[in-house]
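Thread title: Can someone regenerate the structure for this chain?

I was given the following input by a collaborator and told the matching C-alpha coordinates would be attached. They weren't. Posting the sequence so someone can regenerate them.
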Amino acid sequence: MATPLSDPSLSPLRTIAVVGLGTMGTGIAEVLAKAGREVVGIDISEAQAAKCVAALESSTARGVERGRLTEQDRAEILGRVRTSTDLRAASDADLVIEVAPESYEVKHQIFRELDGIVRPETIMATGTNALSVTRLAADSARPERVLGLHFFNPAPAMRLVEVVSSVLTAPAAVTAVTDLALDLGKEPVAVGDRPGFVADGLLFGYLNQAAAMYEAKYASREDIDAAMRLGCGLPMGPLALLDLIGVDTARTVLDAMYAASRDRLHAPAPILKQLSEAGLTGRKAGRGFYTYEAPGSGTVVRDALTPLEGGNLVPGREVRSVGVAGSGTMASGIAEVFAKAGYEVVLAARSQEKAQAAKARIGKSLSRSVDKGRMTAEAAAQTLDLITPTGTYDDFAGVDLAVEAVAEDLEVKRQLFAALDKVCKPGAVLATTTSSLPVVACARATSRPQDVIGMHFFNPAPAMKLVEVVRTVLTADDVHATVREVCGRIRKHAVDCGDRAGFIVNALLFPYLNNAIKMVQEHYASLDDIDAAMKLGGGYPMGPFELLDVVGLDVSLAIEKVLHREFRDPGLAPAPLLEHLVAAGCLGRKTGRGFREYAKR
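Best answer:
Regenerated them for you:
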Protein backbone atom coordinates (compact mmCIF):
# COMPACT_ATOMS: atom_id res chain seq x y z
CA MET A 1 0.00 0.00 0.00
CA ALA A 2 1.31 3.44 -0.89
CA THR A 3 1.36 6.25 1.64
CA PRO A 4 2.26 9.93 1.23
CA LEU A 5 6.03 10.35 1.12
CA SER A 6 5.93 13.12 3.72
CA ASP A 7 3.65 15.00 6.05
CA PRO A 8 2.54 17.96 3.90
CA SER A 9 1.57 19.88 7.03
CA LEU A 10 5.30 20.27 7.75
CA SER A 11 5.93 22.01 4.44
CA PRO A 12 5.11 25.64 3.64
CA LEU A 13 4.19 24.51 0.11
CA ARG A 14 0.86 22.78 0.69
CA THR A 15 -1.25 24.04 -2.21
CA ILE A 16 0.43 23.91 -5.61
CA ALA A 17 -0.88 25.10 -8.95
CA VAL A 18 0.32 23.43 -12.15
CA VAL A 19 -0.15 25.60 -15.24
CA GLY A 20 -0.17 23.57 -18.46
CA LEU A 21 -1.71 20.10 -18.34
CA GLY A 22 0.10 18.32 -21.13
CA THR A 23 2.04 15.12 -20.48
CA MET A 24 4.53 16.80 -18.16
CA GLY A 25 1.97 18.90 -16.26
CA THR A 26 -0.25 15.87 -15.75
CA GLY A 27 2.69 13.83 -14.47
CA ILE A 28 3.72 16.56 -12.03
CA ALA A 29 0.13 16.87 -10.78
CA GLU A 30 0.08 13.12 -10.11
CA VAL A 31 3.37 13.22 -8.19
CA LEU A 32 2.14 16.13 -6.04
CA ALA A 33 -1.27 14.62 -5.29
CA LYS A 34 0.24 11.27 -4.32
CA ALA A 35 2.51 13.13 -1.87
CA GLY A 36 -0.47 14.73 -0.13
CA ARG A 37 -0.46 18.17 -1.76
CA GLU A 38 -3.57 20.03 -2.85
CA VAL A 39 -3.21 20.47 -6.60
CA VAL A 40 -4.84 23.04 -8.86
CA GLY A 41 -4.38 22.03 -12.49
CA ILE A 42 -4.83 24.92 -14.95
CA ASP A 43 -5.01 24.81 -18.73
CA ILE A 44 -6.63 27.14 -21.28
CA SER A 45 -8.19 24.07 -22.91
CA GLU A 46 -11.14 22.39 -21.17
CA ALA A 47 -10.46 19.29 -23.24
CA GLN A 48 -6.85 19.17 -22.01
CA ALA A 49 -7.96 19.61 -18.39
CA ALA A 50 -10.43 16.74 -18.83
CA LYS A 51 -7.71 14.64 -20.42
CA CYS A 52 -5.50 15.29 -17.37
CA VAL A 53 -8.23 14.08 -15.00
CA ALA A 54 -8.83 10.99 -17.14
CA ALA A 55 -5.10 10.22 -17.13
CA LEU A 56 -4.97 10.53 -13.33
CA GLU A 57 -8.01 8.26 -12.98
CA SER A 58 -6.37 5.71 -15.26
CA SER A 59 -2.95 5.77 -13.56
CA THR A 60 -4.41 5.48 -10.06
CA ALA A 61 -6.68 2.64 -11.21
CA ARG A 62 -3.57 0.79 -12.40
CA GLY A 63 -2.01 1.48 -9.01
CA VAL A 64 -4.96 -0.24 -7.31
CA GLU A 65 -4.82 -3.20 -9.72
CA ARG A 66 -1.11 -3.66 -8.95
CA GLY A 67 -1.61 -3.40 -5.20
CA ARG A 68 0.29 -0.13 -4.87
CA LEU A 69 -2.79 1.82 -3.77
CA THR A 70 -6.02 1.02 -1.95
CA GLU A 71 -9.35 2.29 -3.23
CA GLN A 72 -9.32 4.79 -0.34
CA ASP A 73 -5.84 6.01 -1.34
CA ARG A 74 -7.07 6.45 -4.91
CA ALA A 75 -10.15 8.41 -3.82
CA GLU A 76 -8.04 10.70 -1.62
CA ILE A 77 -5.49 11.34 -4.40
CA LEU A 78 -8.17 12.20 -6.95
CA GLY A 79 -9.94 14.34 -4.34
CA ARG A 80 -6.82 16.47 -3.93
CA VAL A 81 -6.84 17.51 -7.62
CA ARG A 82 -9.12 20.12 -9.12
CA THR A 83 -8.84 21.67 -12.57
CA SER A 84 -9.66 25.03 -14.09
CA THR A 85 -9.25 27.01 -17.29
CA ASP A 86 -8.77 30.26 -15.35
CA LEU A 87 -5.39 31.37 -13.96
CA ARG A 88 -7.21 33.02 -11.05
CA ALA A 89 -7.66 29.52 -9.63
CA ALA A 90 -3.99 29.82 -8.56
CA SER A 91 -4.76 32.67 -6.13
CA ASP A 92 -4.37 30.50 -3.01
CA ALA A 93 -1.31 28.57 -4.22
CA ASP A 94 1.90 28.51 -2.19
CA LEU A 95 3.80 27.46 -5.34
CA VAL A 96 2.94 27.73 -9.02
CA ILE A 97 4.73 25.41 -11.47
CA GLU A 98 4.42 26.58 -15.07
CA VAL A 99 4.88 23.91 -17.78
CA ALA A 100 3.41 25.72 -20.78
CA PRO A 101 4.92 25.44 -24.29
CA GLU A 102 8.57 26.53 -24.73
CA SER A 103 7.85 30.10 -25.82
CA TYR A 104 9.03 33.28 -24.08
CA GLU A 105 5.88 35.05 -25.22
CA VAL A 106 3.57 32.40 -23.73
CA LYS A 107 5.53 32.09 -20.49
CA HIS A 108 5.89 35.89 -20.06
CA GLN A 109 2.14 36.30 -20.41
CA ILE A 110 1.50 33.63 -17.77
CA PHE A 111 3.97 35.17 -15.32
CA ARG A 112 2.64 38.70 -15.86
CA GLU A 113 -0.92 37.53 -15.16
CA LEU A 114 0.19 35.52 -12.12
CA ASP A 115 1.86 38.65 -10.67
CA GLY A 116 -1.61 40.16 -10.25
CA ILE A 117 -3.19 36.97 -8.90
CA VAL A 118 -0.92 35.17 -6.42
CA ARG A 119 0.06 36.24 -2.90
CA PRO A 120 3.33 38.19 -2.44
CA GLU A 121 5.00 35.18 -0.78
CA THR A 122 4.01 32.66 -3.49
CA ILE A 123 6.95 31.03 -5.30
CA MET A 124 6.67 30.89 -9.08
CA ALA A 125 8.60 28.13 -10.88
CA THR A 126 9.06 27.56 -14.58
CA GLY A 127 9.51 24.06 -15.94
CA THR A 128 11.49 25.26 -18.96
CA ASN A 129 14.51 23.29 -20.08
CA ALA A 130 15.62 25.70 -22.79
CA LEU A 131 14.65 29.28 -21.97
CA SER A 132 16.34 31.74 -19.62
CA VAL A 133 14.95 31.66 -16.08
CA THR A 134 16.67 35.01 -15.45
CA ARG A 135 14.85 36.63 -18.36
CA LEU A 136 11.49 35.35 -17.09
CA ALA A 137 12.30 36.47 -13.54
CA ALA A 138 13.46 39.96 -14.59
CA ASP A 139 10.07 40.73 -16.10
CA SER A 140 8.23 39.56 -12.98
CA ALA A 141 7.07 41.90 -10.21
CA ARG A 142 8.81 39.58 -7.71
CA PRO A 143 11.96 38.26 -9.39
CA GLU A 144 13.34 36.94 -6.09
CA ARG A 145 10.42 34.46 -5.97
CA VAL A 146 11.01 33.08 -9.48
CA LEU A 147 13.14 30.01 -10.20
CA GLY A 148 13.30 26.94 -12.41
CA LEU A 149 11.95 23.56 -11.38
CA HIS A 150 12.77 21.10 -14.18
CA PHE A 151 11.12 17.68 -13.88
CA PHE A 152 11.91 14.86 -16.33
CA ASN A 153 9.46 12.83 -18.37
CA PRO A 154 7.66 10.71 -17.21
CA ALA A 155 7.53 12.75 -14.00
CA PRO A 156 6.09 9.96 -11.77
CA ALA A 157 8.99 7.63 -12.67
CA MET A 158 12.00 9.93 -13.15
CA ARG A 159 13.74 10.85 -9.91
CA LEU A 160 15.77 13.86 -11.03
CA VAL A 161 14.59 17.43 -10.49
CA GLU A 162 16.87 20.33 -11.47
CA VAL A 163 16.40 23.37 -9.20
CA VAL A 164 17.49 26.38 -11.23
CA SER A 165 18.47 29.67 -9.57
CA SER A 166 18.93 32.97 -11.34
CA VAL A 167 21.11 35.75 -9.92
CA LEU A 168 17.86 37.26 -8.62
CA THR A 169 16.47 34.20 -6.79
CA ALA A 170 16.15 34.37 -3.00
CA PRO A 171 17.90 31.49 -1.17
CA ALA A 172 14.72 30.86 0.88
CA ALA A 173 12.78 30.10 -2.31
CA VAL A 174 15.46 27.63 -3.42
CA THR A 175 15.40 25.93 -0.02
CA ALA A 176 11.61 25.61 -0.07
CA VAL A 177 11.40 23.94 -3.48
CA THR A 178 14.45 21.75 -2.75
CA ASP A 179 12.74 20.50 0.40
CA LEU A 180 9.58 19.90 -1.61
CA ALA A 181 11.47 17.86 -4.20
CA LEU A 182 12.94 15.70 -1.42
CA ASP A 183 9.45 15.28 0.08
CA LEU A 184 8.26 14.06 -3.31
CA GLY A 185 10.90 11.34 -3.30
CA LYS A 186 12.95 13.11 -5.97
CA GLU A 187 16.67 13.88 -6.04
CA PRO A 188 17.12 17.64 -6.50
CA VAL A 189 20.25 18.99 -8.19
CA ALA A 190 21.03 22.70 -7.79
CA VAL A 191 22.15 24.35 -11.03
CA GLY A 192 22.63 27.82 -12.48
CA ASP A 193 20.67 29.37 -15.30
CA ARG A 194 21.91 28.34 -18.73
CA PRO A 195 20.08 26.61 -21.61
CA GLY A 196 19.61 22.90 -21.07
CA PHE A 197 20.93 23.10 -17.49
CA VAL A 198 22.95 19.93 -16.73
CA ALA A 199 21.07 16.91 -18.05
CA ASP A 200 19.59 18.40 -21.21
CA GLY A 201 22.70 20.52 -21.77
CA LEU A 202 24.68 17.30 -22.17
CA LEU A 203 21.92 15.18 -23.66
CA PHE A 204 20.82 17.46 -26.49
CA GLY A 205 24.32 18.02 -27.84
CA TYR A 206 24.66 14.24 -28.11
CA LEU A 207 21.23 13.90 -29.77
CA ASN A 208 22.14 16.64 -32.24
CA GLN A 209 25.37 14.87 -33.22
CA ALA A 210 23.44 11.65 -33.75
CA ALA A 211 20.96 13.45 -36.02
CA ALA A 212 23.85 14.96 -38.00
CA MET A 213 25.50 11.53 -38.28
CA TYR A 214 22.29 10.07 -39.70
CA GLU A 215 21.78 13.03 -42.02
CA ALA A 216 25.27 12.47 -43.45
CA LYS A 217 24.22 8.88 -44.27
CA TYR A 218 27.18 7.63 -42.25
CA ALA A 219 25.03 4.91 -40.66
CA SER A 220 21.40 3.85 -40.67
CA ARG A 221 19.00 5.03 -37.97
CA GLU A 222 18.69 1.43 -36.71
CA ASP A 223 22.47 1.00 -36.47
CA ILE A 224 23.01 4.35 -34.73
CA ASP A 225 20.36 3.51 -32.14
CA ALA A 226 21.53 -0.08 -31.63
CA ALA A 227 25.15 1.06 -31.28
CA MET A 228 24.37 3.45 -28.44
CA ARG A 229 22.04 1.03 -26.66
CA LEU A 230 24.40 -1.95 -26.85
CA GLY A 231 27.71 -0.07 -26.76
CA CYS A 232 26.84 2.29 -23.89
CA GLY A 233 23.98 0.51 -22.12
CA LEU A 234 21.53 3.35 -22.81
CA PRO A 235 17.80 2.67 -22.47
CA MET A 236 17.05 4.16 -25.91
CA GLY A 237 18.97 5.06 -29.02
CA PRO A 238 19.33 8.80 -29.79
CA LEU A 239 17.03 8.93 -32.83
CA ALA A 240 14.26 6.99 -31.09
CA LEU A 241 14.70 9.34 -28.13
CA LEU A 242 14.40 12.40 -30.38
CA ASP A 243 11.10 10.99 -31.65
CA LEU A 244 9.92 10.48 -28.07
CA ILE A 245 10.95 13.98 -26.92
CA GLY A 246 9.63 15.61 -30.09
CA VAL A 247 11.86 16.74 -32.95
CA ASP A 248 10.41 20.27 -32.70
CA THR A 249 11.13 20.42 -28.95
CA ALA A 250 14.72 19.27 -29.54
CA ARG A 251 15.19 21.94 -32.18
CA THR A 252 13.89 24.62 -29.76
CA VAL A 253 16.26 23.49 -27.00
CA LEU A 254 19.24 23.37 -29.37
CA ASP A 255 18.43 26.81 -30.79
CA ALA A 256 18.53 28.22 -27.26
CA MET A 257 21.76 26.37 -26.44
CA TYR A 258 23.45 27.56 -29.61
CA ALA A 259 22.34 31.16 -29.03
CA ALA A 260 24.06 31.03 -25.63
CA SER A 261 27.17 28.96 -26.45
CA ARG A 262 27.85 29.55 -30.18
CA ASP A 263 29.27 26.02 -30.07
CA ARG A 264 28.81 24.37 -33.48
CA LEU A 265 27.94 21.12 -31.73
CA HIS A 266 24.74 22.84 -30.49
CA ALA A 267 23.74 24.29 -33.88
CA PRO A 268 20.64 22.22 -34.76
CA ALA A 269 21.30 19.68 -37.50
CA PRO A 270 19.39 20.76 -40.65
CA ILE A 271 17.36 17.53 -40.60
CA LEU A 272 15.73 18.66 -37.34
CA LYS A 273 14.44 21.80 -39.07
CA GLN A 274 13.30 19.83 -42.11
CA LEU A 275 11.38 17.26 -40.07
CA SER A 276 9.86 19.95 -37.81
CA GLU A 277 8.66 22.09 -40.69
CA ALA A 278 7.20 19.03 -42.43
CA GLY A 279 5.22 18.22 -39.26
CA LEU A 280 7.19 15.00 -38.76
CA THR A 281 7.85 15.71 -35.09
CA GLY A 282 8.13 12.14 -33.81
CA ARG A 283 5.79 9.84 -31.95
CA LYS A 284 3.16 12.52 -31.32
CA ALA A 285 2.80 13.00 -35.09
CA GLY A 286 3.09 9.32 -35.97
CA ARG A 287 6.30 9.91 -37.87
CA GLY A 288 9.73 11.40 -37.26
CA PHE A 289 12.99 9.56 -37.72
CA TYR A 290 10.85 6.41 -37.58
CA THR A 291 7.25 5.72 -38.62
CA TYR A 292 4.75 4.73 -35.91
CA GLU A 293 1.51 2.75 -35.90
CA ALA A 294 -0.49 5.89 -35.12
CA PRO A 295 0.08 9.39 -33.68
CA GLY A 296 1.03 8.97 -30.03
CA SER A 297 1.94 5.30 -30.45
CA GLY A 298 5.35 3.94 -29.51
CA THR A 299 5.07 1.00 -31.90
CA VAL A 300 7.45 1.35 -34.85
CA VAL A 301 6.20 0.06 -38.21
CA ARG A 302 8.08 -0.68 -41.41
CA ASP A 303 8.64 2.13 -43.87
CA ALA A 304 10.75 2.74 -46.97
CA LEU A 305 13.92 3.09 -44.85
CA THR A 306 13.50 -0.12 -42.86
CA PRO A 307 16.30 -2.61 -43.72
CA LEU A 308 15.21 -5.66 -45.69
CA GLU A 309 15.05 -8.94 -43.83
CA GLY A 310 17.42 -11.66 -44.93
CA GLY A 311 20.73 -9.80 -44.70
CA ASN A 312 23.43 -9.77 -47.32
CA LEU A 313 22.82 -10.49 -50.98
CA VAL A 314 26.53 -11.29 -51.46
CA PRO A 315 27.67 -14.65 -50.03
CA GLY A 316 30.50 -14.54 -47.52
CA ARG A 317 33.67 -16.61 -47.34
CA GLU A 318 33.83 -19.76 -45.24
CA VAL A 319 35.36 -19.27 -41.77
CA ARG A 320 36.27 -22.32 -39.69
CA SER A 321 39.38 -21.14 -37.85
CA VAL A 322 40.28 -17.76 -36.38
CA GLY A 323 43.58 -16.18 -35.40
CA VAL A 324 43.61 -13.58 -32.62
CA ALA A 325 46.73 -11.41 -32.28
CA GLY A 326 47.44 -9.92 -28.85
CA SER A 327 47.68 -10.95 -25.22
CA GLY A 328 45.72 -8.25 -23.38
CA THR A 329 42.19 -8.21 -21.99
CA MET A 330 40.59 -7.47 -25.35
CA ALA A 331 42.52 -10.16 -27.23
CA SER A 332 41.74 -12.85 -24.66
CA GLY A 333 38.10 -11.76 -24.53
CA ILE A 334 37.75 -12.00 -28.34
CA ALA A 335 39.46 -15.41 -28.37
CA GLU A 336 36.99 -16.59 -25.70
CA VAL A 337 34.03 -15.33 -27.76
CA PHE A 338 35.13 -17.22 -30.89
CA ALA A 339 35.94 -20.42 -28.98
CA LYS A 340 32.54 -20.37 -27.25
CA ALA A 341 30.96 -20.24 -30.73
CA GLY A 342 32.88 -23.40 -31.72
CA TYR A 343 35.66 -21.86 -33.80
CA GLU A 344 39.22 -23.20 -33.61
CA VAL A 345 41.29 -20.28 -32.31
CA VAL A 346 45.02 -19.59 -32.63
CA LEU A 347 45.96 -17.04 -29.95
CA ALA A 348 49.27 -15.41 -30.87
CA ALA A 349 51.33 -13.09 -28.67
CA ARG A 350 54.89 -11.75 -28.73
CA SER A 351 56.05 -14.76 -26.74
CA GLN A 352 54.77 -18.23 -25.89
CA GLU A 353 54.65 -17.20 -22.21
CA LYS A 354 52.39 -14.23 -22.92
CA ALA A 355 50.13 -16.40 -25.06
CA GLN A 356 49.91 -19.04 -22.30
CA ALA A 357 49.08 -16.32 -19.76
CA ALA A 358 46.30 -15.03 -22.03
CA LYS A 359 44.86 -18.57 -22.34
CA ALA A 360 45.05 -18.94 -18.54
CA ARG A 361 43.04 -15.69 -18.23
CA ILE A 362 40.40 -17.19 -20.52
CA GLY A 363 40.36 -20.32 -18.36
CA LYS A 364 39.59 -18.23 -15.28
CA SER A 365 36.84 -16.40 -17.14
CA LEU A 366 35.25 -19.69 -18.20
CA SER A 367 35.50 -20.99 -14.61
CA ARG A 368 33.57 -17.94 -13.41
CA SER A 369 30.88 -18.73 -15.99
CA VAL A 370 30.69 -22.29 -14.64
CA ASP A 371 30.44 -21.01 -11.05
CA LYS A 372 27.56 -18.73 -12.07
CA GLY A 373 25.73 -21.55 -13.82
CA ARG A 374 26.10 -20.04 -17.29
CA MET A 375 27.87 -23.07 -18.75
CA THR A 376 28.82 -26.59 -17.69
CA ALA A 377 32.33 -27.59 -16.67
CA GLU A 378 32.44 -29.91 -19.70
CA ALA A 379 31.50 -27.06 -22.09
CA ALA A 380 34.14 -24.82 -20.50
CA ALA A 381 36.82 -27.50 -20.94
CA GLN A 382 35.81 -28.04 -24.58
CA THR A 383 35.92 -24.30 -25.22
CA LEU A 384 39.40 -23.96 -23.72
CA ASP A 385 40.64 -26.91 -25.79
CA LEU A 386 39.73 -25.01 -28.98
CA ILE A 387 42.34 -22.32 -28.15
CA THR A 388 45.96 -22.88 -29.20
CA PRO A 389 48.44 -20.37 -27.72
CA THR A 390 51.52 -19.50 -29.73
CA GLY A 391 54.41 -17.07 -29.71
CA THR A 392 54.59 -16.69 -33.50
CA TYR A 393 52.26 -15.29 -36.15
CA ASP A 394 53.50 -18.04 -38.49
CA ASP A 395 50.79 -20.21 -36.93
CA PHE A 396 48.17 -18.00 -38.61
CA ALA A 397 49.03 -19.65 -41.95
CA GLY A 398 45.83 -21.72 -42.00
CA VAL A 399 43.29 -19.37 -40.40
CA ASP A 400 40.33 -18.04 -42.36
CA LEU A 401 39.96 -14.87 -40.28
CA ALA A 402 42.76 -13.01 -38.45
CA VAL A 403 41.71 -10.44 -35.82
CA GLU A 404 44.33 -8.13 -34.31
CA ALA A 405 43.87 -6.70 -30.82
CA VAL A 406 47.30 -5.22 -30.12
CA ALA A 407 48.27 -1.76 -28.83
CA GLU A 408 46.31 1.24 -30.17
CA ASP A 409 49.33 2.52 -32.06
CA LEU A 410 49.13 2.94 -35.84
CA GLU A 411 52.76 2.01 -36.54
CA VAL A 412 52.47 -1.13 -34.38
CA LYS A 413 49.31 -2.14 -36.24
CA ARG A 414 50.79 -1.39 -39.68
CA GLN A 415 53.80 -3.60 -38.92
CA LEU A 416 51.49 -6.38 -37.75
CA PHE A 417 49.33 -6.18 -40.89
CA ALA A 418 52.43 -6.30 -43.06
CA ALA A 419 53.42 -9.49 -41.20
CA LEU A 420 49.92 -10.99 -41.51
CA ASP A 421 49.96 -10.22 -45.24
CA LYS A 422 53.00 -12.47 -45.63
CA VAL A 423 51.75 -15.25 -43.33
CA CYS A 424 48.01 -15.60 -43.95
CA LYS A 425 46.72 -17.64 -46.88
CA PRO A 426 45.09 -15.99 -49.91
CA GLY A 427 41.42 -15.23 -49.22
CA ALA A 428 41.84 -14.92 -45.44
CA VAL A 429 39.98 -11.95 -43.96
CA LEU A 430 42.19 -9.57 -41.94
CA ALA A 431 40.40 -7.51 -39.25
CA THR A 432 41.49 -4.77 -36.87
CA THR A 433 39.78 -4.02 -33.57
CA THR A 434 40.94 -0.38 -33.53
CA SER A 435 38.57 2.06 -31.86
CA SER A 436 40.11 5.27 -33.17
CA LEU A 437 42.68 4.68 -35.92
CA PRO A 438 42.00 4.59 -39.70
CA VAL A 439 41.30 1.06 -40.86
CA VAL A 440 42.46 1.95 -44.38
CA ALA A 441 45.95 2.70 -43.04
CA CYS A 442 46.14 -0.90 -41.80
CA ALA A 443 44.78 -2.10 -45.16
CA ARG A 444 47.40 -0.16 -47.12
CA ALA A 445 50.15 -1.94 -45.17
CA THR A 446 49.14 -5.12 -47.03
CA SER A 447 49.11 -6.22 -50.67
CA ARG A 448 45.41 -7.10 -50.32
CA PRO A 449 43.55 -4.09 -48.93
CA GLN A 450 40.27 -5.53 -50.23
CA ASP A 451 40.54 -8.26 -47.56
CA VAL A 452 40.91 -5.83 -44.62
CA ILE A 453 38.00 -4.63 -42.45
CA GLY A 454 37.38 -3.24 -38.97
CA MET A 455 35.72 -5.36 -36.25
CA HIS A 456 35.47 -3.09 -33.23
CA PHE A 457 34.55 -5.20 -30.21
CA PHE A 458 33.66 -3.56 -26.88
CA ASN A 459 35.20 -4.39 -23.53
CA PRO A 460 34.59 -6.90 -21.96
CA ALA A 461 34.14 -8.73 -25.27
CA PRO A 462 32.39 -11.82 -23.81
CA ALA A 463 29.67 -9.63 -22.24
CA MET A 464 29.22 -6.76 -24.71
CA LYS A 465 26.87 -7.57 -27.58
CA LEU A 466 28.00 -4.89 -30.05
CA VAL A 467 30.53 -5.08 -32.89
CA GLU A 468 31.06 -2.08 -35.17
CA VAL A 469 31.82 -3.41 -38.66
CA VAL A 470 33.98 -0.82 -40.41
CA ARG A 471 34.31 -0.91 -44.19
CA THR A 472 36.96 1.10 -45.96
CA VAL A 473 36.54 2.33 -49.54
CA LEU A 474 38.67 -0.68 -50.56
CA THR A 475 36.91 -3.46 -48.61
CA ALA A 476 35.40 -6.17 -50.81
CA ASP A 477 31.67 -6.92 -50.56
CA ASP A 478 32.21 -10.58 -49.71
CA VAL A 479 34.61 -9.61 -46.89
CA HIS A 480 31.90 -7.39 -45.41
CA ALA A 481 29.37 -10.22 -45.81
CA THR A 482 31.78 -12.66 -44.15
CA VAL A 483 32.20 -10.53 -41.05
CA ARG A 484 28.44 -9.89 -40.77
CA GLU A 485 27.83 -13.65 -40.90
CA VAL A 486 30.54 -14.34 -38.34
CA CYS A 487 29.06 -11.73 -35.97
CA GLY A 488 25.76 -13.61 -36.14
CA ARG A 489 27.45 -16.90 -35.30
CA ILE A 490 29.27 -15.46 -32.28
CA ARG A 491 25.96 -13.90 -31.14
CA LYS A 492 27.01 -10.30 -31.55
CA HIS A 493 24.91 -7.46 -32.97
CA ALA A 494 26.77 -5.99 -35.94
CA VAL A 495 26.32 -2.37 -37.00
CA ASP A 496 27.77 -1.00 -40.23
CA CYS A 497 29.75 2.21 -40.37
CA GLY A 498 32.39 3.87 -42.52
CA ASP A 499 36.07 4.35 -41.82
CA ARG A 500 36.19 7.63 -39.93
CA ALA A 501 37.35 8.58 -36.43
CA GLY A 502 35.28 7.24 -33.56
CA PHE A 503 32.97 5.19 -35.79
CA ILE A 504 29.49 5.44 -34.21
CA VAL A 505 29.85 4.97 -30.46
CA ASN A 506 33.02 6.89 -29.67
CA ALA A 507 32.12 9.70 -32.09
CA LEU A 508 28.92 10.30 -30.10
CA LEU A 509 30.13 9.34 -26.62
CA PHE A 510 33.35 11.32 -26.26
CA PRO A 511 32.06 14.79 -27.21
CA TYR A 512 29.39 14.25 -24.52
CA LEU A 513 32.07 13.30 -21.99
CA ASN A 514 34.17 16.29 -23.03
CA ASN A 515 31.22 18.65 -22.53
CA ALA A 516 30.67 17.23 -19.03
CA ILE A 517 34.31 18.03 -18.19
CA LYS A 518 33.81 21.59 -19.47
CA MET A 519 30.84 22.00 -17.09
CA VAL A 520 33.09 21.16 -14.13
CA GLN A 521 35.94 23.24 -15.52
CA GLU A 522 33.59 26.25 -15.72
CA HIS A 523 32.35 25.61 -12.14
CA TYR A 524 28.80 25.24 -13.43
CA ALA A 525 28.08 22.00 -11.57
CA SER A 526 29.90 19.44 -9.42
CA LEU A 527 31.06 15.96 -10.47
CA ASP A 528 28.47 14.37 -8.21
CA ASP A 529 25.60 16.53 -9.48
CA ILE A 530 26.48 15.88 -13.13
CA ASP A 531 26.82 12.12 -12.59
CA ALA A 532 23.51 12.06 -10.70
CA ALA A 533 21.78 14.15 -13.35
CA MET A 534 22.76 11.82 -16.20
CA LYS A 535 21.92 8.65 -14.32
CA LEU A 536 18.60 9.88 -12.93
CA GLY A 537 17.55 12.20 -15.75
CA GLY A 538 18.97 10.38 -18.76
CA GLY A 539 18.87 6.75 -17.64
CA TYR A 540 22.61 6.36 -18.17
CA PRO A 541 24.12 3.32 -16.39
CA MET A 542 27.09 5.44 -15.28
CA GLY A 543 27.64 9.16 -14.89
CA PRO A 544 30.21 10.73 -17.25
CA PHE A 545 32.92 11.04 -14.58
CA GLU A 546 32.41 7.49 -13.35
CA LEU A 547 32.80 6.35 -16.95
CA LEU A 548 35.85 8.51 -17.66
CA ASP A 549 37.65 7.09 -14.63
CA VAL A 550 36.81 3.52 -15.72
CA VAL A 551 37.86 4.03 -19.37
CA GLY A 552 41.04 5.86 -18.34
CA LEU A 553 41.67 9.57 -18.76
CA ASP A 554 44.67 8.95 -21.02
CA VAL A 555 42.59 6.72 -23.32
CA SER A 556 39.78 9.29 -23.32
CA LEU A 557 42.18 12.12 -24.15
CA ALA A 558 43.71 10.13 -27.02
CA ILE A 559 40.27 9.48 -28.55
CA GLU A 560 39.22 13.12 -28.15
CA LYS A 561 42.41 14.26 -29.87
CA VAL A 562 41.71 11.91 -32.79
CA LEU A 563 38.14 13.22 -33.12
CA HIS A 564 39.32 16.84 -32.98
CA ARG A 565 42.03 16.18 -35.58
CA GLU A 566 39.59 14.42 -37.93
CA PHE A 567 36.60 16.77 -37.76
CA ARG A 568 38.47 20.05 -37.06
CA ASP A 569 35.58 21.36 -34.96
CA PRO A 570 36.67 23.73 -32.16
CA GLY A 571 33.93 22.27 -29.94
CA LEU A 572 35.71 18.91 -30.04
CA ALA A 573 38.99 20.27 -28.62
CA PRO A 574 39.79 18.31 -25.43
CA ALA A 575 38.93 20.20 -22.25
CA PRO A 576 42.12 21.61 -20.66
CA LEU A 577 41.13 20.05 -17.32
CA LEU A 578 41.38 16.58 -18.90
CA GLU A 579 44.81 17.38 -20.34
CA HIS A 580 46.02 18.67 -16.96
CA LEU A 581 44.87 15.54 -15.11
CA VAL A 582 46.57 13.26 -17.65
CA ALA A 583 49.78 15.31 -17.44
CA ALA A 584 49.65 14.89 -13.65
CA GLY A 585 49.37 11.10 -13.99
CA CYS A 586 45.79 11.03 -12.70
CA LEU A 587 44.46 8.49 -15.18
CA GLY A 588 41.44 7.11 -13.33
CA ARG A 589 40.84 3.91 -11.43
CA LYS A 590 43.98 2.25 -12.78
CA THR A 591 46.19 4.82 -11.00
CA GLY A 592 43.95 5.30 -7.95
CA ARG A 593 43.06 8.85 -8.92
CA GLY A 594 41.28 10.50 -11.83
CA PHE A 595 38.33 12.82 -11.39
CA ARG A 596 37.88 11.03 -8.06
CA GLU A 597 40.22 9.22 -5.70
CA TYR A 598 40.00 5.45 -5.22
CA ALA A 599 41.18 3.13 -2.47
CA LYS A 600 44.42 1.37 -3.34
CA ARG A 601 44.02 -2.31 -4.09
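DSSP finds 22 helices and 18 strands in the chain.
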